[in-house]
Amino acid sequence: MNTKVVTVDKEKPDLLLMREAGEILKKGGLVAFPTETVYGLGGDGLNAGSSRKIYAAKGRPSDNPLIIHIADFESLEKIVRCVPEKAKLLAAKFWPGPLTMIFSKSSIVPYETTGGLESVAVRMPSHPVAKAIIREGGGYIAAPSANTSGRPSPTRAEHVQEDLAGKIDMIVDGGAVGIGIESTIVDFTEEVPVILRPGYINQAMIQEVIGPVRMDKGLLITDEKVQPKAPGMKYRHYAPRAQLTIVEGSSSQVVKYINAQCEKALREGKKPGVIASDETVSSYRGAVVKGIGARADEEEIARNLFAVLREFDEEDTDILFSEAFDTPKMGQAIMNRLLKAAGYHMISLDE
Ligand code: TXA
Ligand code: MG
Q1: Are strands 184-187 and 319-323 parallel, antiparallel or unpaired?
Q2: In this structure, is the dihedral angle defined by the CA atoms of residues 178, 143, 168 and 154, taken in order, positive or negative?
Q3: How far is the CA of 280 from the centre of ligand 1 (A)?
Q4: Domain of 330: which CATH number?
Q5: Is residue 150, in this structure, part of any structural domain at all?
Q6: Ligand 1 centroid vs 140 CA: distance in angstroms?
Q7: Do residues 101 and 153 make contact, with C-beta atoms less than 8 angstroms apart?
Q8: Which residues pair with 123 in a beta bridge?
Q9: Are 265 and 343 part of one and the same domain?
Q10: Closest atom of ligand 1 to CA, residue 146
Q11: Do residues 155 and 177 lie in contact, with contact meaning Cβ atoms separated by under 8 Å?
């Protein structure tokens, strides 16, 4: 298949191109487009055939449900059974934006889209290109992150091309995304709402609006027997080709430990790599070192994370180390993605 790539102005996308993308979606085709979190791979969420095509293009297991993207709150009614009051409050505060909510699905939503579940995940993105494409495409666009299953989510159109060129109808290039990690997912199908995936909108921000919310047990415990509730969270993800280890501790201890490990790797004839903060990037020796951003600017770290993981795949490093980034607001989301990339391999250095 020939994949058409078009470039648009992020703030004022060309309406004719948005219509063209919309036509492809309405006919059951697939279009990748930017959102404020990561690039999504869109298909008509109410068309079972489109959802099947999404799974095939990504190589994604078909029990891993998709998020339906809408462009206005009124659209929600048609695809869910009921909207709890607390969900309305969260929508009023955070939609459009990087928040996904899970509800009981209505019969119009095909099981192909929900991976066989009775619930459906819904998000209203704020990105002008995403909004236009959802509207032109019929209003209900299923869109997982536009990467091959298991690879880091795409934060630029080039990443989508690497993974999906030749497999989908169109890629809409709207430049680099703003947030860089996927939306926060809150499940409203339980008594007390549960965060299934941490993101830019953190637990404290949600609790400020609706009171108590739980973190899904599968997120907190790295025991393989405790499965996360979001099916997609159980898969090894974002994984660079080289084994990654996260090293936690005081800055000087971490630098010392990683340098010793890199020396050992070099002696064994291996090529080591390090993911560092701007503050420590010049302290590492003998390895391919990539700065991910300043600790003081956690949004920068989140924005760069997936691109840095992808860059290491190009470097053919054999062994990777990363500092831990337990930053105040997005630390939970950043560490969740990093831990998955490392297959939960983390070393804590005591004082
Ligand atoms: O920021 C985002 O959410 C991006 C952009 C494109 O909007 N999309 C995204 O989709 O990250 P995806 O498919 O890569 O991740 C969706 C996650 C998966 O872990 C999936 O298992 C979970 O949401 N999920 C979807 N529907 C669910 C449901 N009904 N119940 C539980 N988990 C669900
Ligand atoms: Mg994904």
Answers
A1: unpaired
A2: positive
A3: 34
A4: 3.40.50.11030
A5: yes
A6: 15
A7: no
A8: 69, 100
A9: yes
A10: 6
A11: yes
Residue nearest to atom 33 of ligand 1 (CA): 230
Residue 235 lies inside a defined structural domain of this protein: no
H-only helix segments in 173-297:
203-210, 217-220, 251-267
Residue entry with tokens 């499965």? 227
Length of the chain equals: 351
Distance 264 CA to ligand 2 centre (A): 35
Residue 209 domain boundaries: 4-219
Could you list which residues have their CB under 5 Å from ion ligand 2?
145
Strand bridging mode 243-248 / 214-215: unpaired
Each residue's pLDDT, cut to its tens digit, for the chain (351 residues) gives: 999 999 999 999 999 999 999 999 999 999 999 999 999 999 999 999 999 999 999 999 989 999 999 999 999 999 999 999 999 999 999 999 999 999 999 999 999 999 999 999 999 999 999 999 999 999 999 999 999 999 999 999 999 999 999 999 999 999 999 999 999 999 999 989 999 999 999 999 999 999 999 999 888 766 666 778 888 776 667 777 789 999 999 999 999 999 999 999 999 999 999 999 999 999 999 999 999 999 999 999 999 999 999 999 889 899 999 999 999 999 999 999 999 999 999 999 976
Same domain, 161 and 62: yes
Cα(101) to centroid of ligand 1, in Å? Answer: 10
Residue nearest to atom 22 of ligand 1 (CA): 230
CA of 321 to the centre of ligand 2 (A): 23
Atom of ligand 1 nearest to the CA of 98: 1
Residue 258 in domain:
yes
Q: Specify the ligand 1 atom closest to the Cα of 233.
A: 19
Q: Model pTM?
A: 0.96
Ligand minimally distant from the alpha carbon of residue 163 = 2
